[in-house]
Design brief:
By secondary structure, the protein is mainly β. It is 12% helix and 40% strand. The protein has four helices and 13 strands. It has a six-stranded mixed β-barrel with strand order 1-3-2-6-5-4. Strand 4 and strand 5 form a beta hairpin. It is elongated.
């Protein structure tokens, strides 16, 4: 489990105009939540978010607020500009170290699948899965050895090694799929094309400023 320190200013503004002004100044609006007890509007320096957002690791955030208080939390949601891909808004959710919580954890494929060596293709269907565990047991990522996978075989969420965590994502959710060899794929194509799944890079939802 990796930890990142993030400094945040408690903001006293609301609304689109003030939020856009903050973004032009290199800051990102956000909200820190802790159950029903806290709902604190914050802003952080955009550059400080790079190691938290653009990573293949799970991180615990040590949030240092401008009033001197400190909170442990995780990044729950990021909103991106659909054109520039800049970070527009973040949500952070607080927790206590002794309570279980749901986390999103990246999945990393390790090795070269036998099916790929035979001429097939590997598709990562989902890049993260949800698990429930104590923060102390949160893995930075889940490594999957795909070396023995052959064409037509799939690794589902239920196949992932979780140790002390409980799977929240449906167990039958495909995570990694190995296609057949090129010849088999051509034969499948004659039966009719299948529509590929589109995996979104990020979420550009309506602002919550």
């Amino acid at each position: 489990m990796a930890e990142i320190t993030l400094k945040a200013t408690i903001r006293d503004y609301r609304g689109r105009s003030a939020s856009n002004q903050a973004r032009r100044a290199g800051r990102v609006p956000g909200v820190f939540y802790y159950g029903n007890a806290k709902n604190i509007p914050i802003e952080v320096v955009a550059l400080d978010l790079r190691s938290l957002v653009y990573t293949a690791e799970s991180n615990i955030v040590n949030l240092e607020l401008s009033d001197g208080s400190k909170e442990k939390c995780v990044l729950r949601e990021v909103q991106f500009d659909p054109i520039t891909d800049k970070i527009m808004h973040i949500d952070l959710v607080g927790f206590a170290m002794g309570e279980k919580m749901t986390f999103e954890v990246p999945v990393i494929a390790e090795g070269t699948a036998q099916g790929v060596r035979d001429g097939g293709l590997m598709q990562v269907v989902v890049h993260k899965v949800e698990i429930e565990c104590l923060p102390a047991d949160l893995p930075e990522h889940i490594v999957v050895d795909v070396t023995e996978l052959r064409g037509g075989e799939t690794i589902t969420a239920g196949d992932l090694p979780l140790n002390k965590a409980t799977l929240v994502t449906p167990a039958d959710q495909p995570v990694i799929v190995i296609s057949h060899t090129r010849g088999d794929s051509d034969a499948d194509a004659q039966e009719g094309p299948s529509e590929p799944e589109v995996i979104a890079r990020g979420k550009a939802a309506d602002e919550k400023d």
